[in-house]
Amino acid sequence: MTDSNTTRAENAPGTPGTPGTPGAPVNLTTRLNQAQPYALGLFRIVVGLLFACHGASSLFGLLGDTAIPAGTWPGWYAAVIQLGAGVLVLAGLGTRSAAFLASGSMAYAYFEVHQPQALFPLQNGGENAAMFCWAFALLVFTGPGALALDRLFGAGEATDAKAREERGAPVAA
């Protein structure tokens, strides 16, 4: 009897040593879970910056590229999407919508420009289009992470947590 009572008392919530309470040992998974919003935010910033640079390069001839003539289909329109969506994703403003548009434009680029040349991205030069497409698709589903302007305007984490709670899905701490 004494052993079972002692075990229950040691495992009771709020008891020091119980995971999730002050003074409890923190394992690697817990630390990684705590850093997840910041890692996702950094991922969003890097992907948005790279995409915006690609668009600026095509539109304005920056970074050693030649500018695409205005109104040229589909290159000029793709560059406008790259610059605009890239800046929005970089800033974390309307991230899911901008990422959806960017992902679709990269899917179009892959299937219309690269895939007819060969099946695999390594053969047809479509690695960038494929990677950007999937990176932005990930951001559509995960949201902006930390350090996003969406958080300042109330369209961020609190809203997402409330929606998950209403659906009955677990809410991450």
Write up this protein.
The chain is mostly helical and 173 residues long. It is 66% helix and 0% strand. The protein is built from 8 helices and no strands.
Largest sheet: none
**What's the helical proportion of residues?**
55-70%
Low-confidence stretches: 1-12
The 3D shape can be described as: elongated
Q: Over all CA atoms, what is the radius of gyration?
A: 23 Å
Q: State the distance separating the first and last CA atoms.
A: 36 Å
Order of SSEs, N→C? Answer: HHHHHHHH
| Number of helices, where a helix is a run of at least 4 consecutive DSSP H or I residues | 8
Give me the count of strands: 0
Strand content: under 5%
Mean of all residue-level pLDDT scores: 83
Structural class label = mainly alpha
Layout of secondary structure:
Blueprint: H1 2-11, H2 28-60, H3 75-91, H4 95-114, H5 121-124, H6 127-142, H7 149-152, H8 157-167
Helix pairs in contact: 2-3, 2-6, 3-4, 4-6
Sum up the structure in keywords.
0% strand; 173 residues; single chain; disordered N terminus; mainly alpha
Offer a quick outline of the entry:
It contains eight helices and no strands.
